[in-house]
Amino acid sequence: MEKKEDRRIERTKDSLRKTFKELALERGYSRVRVKDIVEVANYNRTTFYVHFLGKEELAKELIEHEMKDFVHEFCKPLRDNPVLDLRQMSPSGTDVFHYIKENRSYYDLLVCDDPIPDINRALLRELQDIFQNRMSFVGDQASEINAQYFIHYRSYGIYGFILEWIRSGYDATPSEMARRIINLLYYHSPIMEQISENT
């Protein structure tokens, strides 16, 4: 019985998150009210407040939920092979850009005029965390290319690639985007290794 209850709760929260994303993209974050969310999702305010303290908590949970999935997809190649040779990596070996395009209802929010607070910083923070704590480069210059300033360089570079791809209406295929990122990462060292399995 408890699992059935848990599934019902998760379905309700999924519906509220989905509706919130749609309204934030259509109207802008600041113009979305709890009243709007529950009316469109066909719930009442009491149901909303059982799950969330307010719009801000819903937004925070939405970002956390999406970033967890983003990190899972981004780090997938290293889970399959803890030491990765980028020279041998096929663009089809990463699914992160397929994931982004399939979840454009979230990622389009990164480039809207009135975005959810912290949505952009959250993506950048996750990219920085990946290169700080989850994967690193191997080679003669490893200490330099794994230094903080290079972590920022890579993180901002990939973040910029993603934003421009979204702004351009996903004009390149996910495989082409993967190829570009592989080239960006390969620039200083072709070998990457997994630091943490917490991906």
Automatic annotation (TrEMBL):
| Pfam hit, one | TetR_N
For this UniProt record, the keywords arranged alphabetically read as follows:
DNA-binding
Does DNA-binding show up as a keyword for this record? yes
A GO term, aspect molecular function: DNA binding
Protein known as: TetR family transcriptional regulator
What sections of the sequence does the record tag as coiled-coil?
none
**Is DNA-binding set as a keyword in this record?**
yes
Domain (HTH tetR-type) spans 10-70
Q: Which residues bind DNA?
A: 33-52
The record ties this protein, via InterPro entries, to:
Homeodomain-like_sf, HTH-type_Tx_Regulator, HTH_TetR, TetR_C_Firmicutes
Can you tell which superkingdom this protein's organism belongs to? Bacteria
Question: What taxonomic classification does the UniProt entry list for its organism?
Answer: Bacteria, Bacillati, Bacillota, Bacilli, Bacillales
